[in-house]
Amino acid sequence: MLAVFACYAFSAAEAHPKFTWQKCTKAGCTPVSGFLVHDKHIGNTADRKDTAIDYEKDVGVVVTGGTVSQRLVSTYNGKKVIGSRIYILDADEKTYTLFKLTGKEFTYTVDMSQIPCSVNAALYSCEMPAAGKGTYGAAYGAGYCDANCVDGSCCPEFDIQEASSHAIVYTAHTCSTPTSGCDTSGCGYNPYRDSNDKTFWAVGGKVDVSKPVTIVTQFVATGTTLTEIKRKYVQGGKAIEAAKSLSDTFCNWRGGTRSMASMGNSFNKGHVIVFSLWDGDGMSWMDGGNAGSCTSYNHNQVEATQPNLKVTWSNIKFGDIDSTY
Questions:
Q1: What is the pLDDT of residues 207-239, one digit of tens each?
Q2: Which one of 14, 93, 157, 241 is the catalytic residue?
Q3: For the chain, is the Cβ count within 10 Å smaller at the N or the C terminus?
Q4: Is 93 tagged catalytic?
Q5: Residue 13 pLDDT level (bands cut at 50, 70, 90)
Q6: Which CATH architecture has domain 93-320?
Q7: Catalytic one of 162, 228, 241, 303
Q8: Is 162 among the residues known to form the active site?
């Protein structure tokens, strides 16, 4: 991810929003109670040390049960704050919830209707340490890493979605070691770019982004070895399978650290789920040119005219393949 945030940390007195997701088997789903925590980095603020934040007012994050929305523009101490980056905490509020994705599926419902060109509504996973890092740890949103080494720390990453209302891509990023040699470009599938399907993800399209859609990602494995990552979209009672899946063949990976098996080895250690909303003018890789229908970008104009735009995530489920939708 390419968003840049300035440092701060949470106080122990901060009230983390309560958050519920569901763990599923073929027999059904059961609720899991936890919390959400904002990353200790936040845009355009000085080091806040142990000062708590008001999630809705300061970073535009609103949580109700299993639903969370992220607003584009907020204000903290008179300074503009763009988007947010949040993680799921365990019930003890001391450790991140780790999801071991190999052989499982991860499902959520998202409302993308307000997300224009210049804005990226992303949900992804990273091999972050459960306890976080440094003085503040997971309880303060510390320890972030990803395959682009944002904030200076590198680790394997899987982008479950990076999207606007004009295009969507999901991408695997492996690394040579747990903390270095990461494939920053990764291997991804975008229906607009890779299948020339310009109406797949669009207003009124096969997946109608003017309405909420349930996105199912299946991490297919043989034993503990990841072999393929498949995608389904569920809307209006109908499941739509992506035309292509990620595999060693699709990615032209031939083993070693650039392989499904390597991505799976990272998943087996456990990944932290990240909800992120950010903007910028360099989004053509995601939804412009041959990647999507956006023809121009002006994030300053979007911030000025649509400061309250939001993405809404809900109904997070994790479990056995074909058990969550």
A1: 999 999 999 999 999 999 999 999 999 999 999
A2: 157
A3: C
A4: no
A5: low
A6: Distorted Sandwich (2.70)
A7: 162
A8: yes
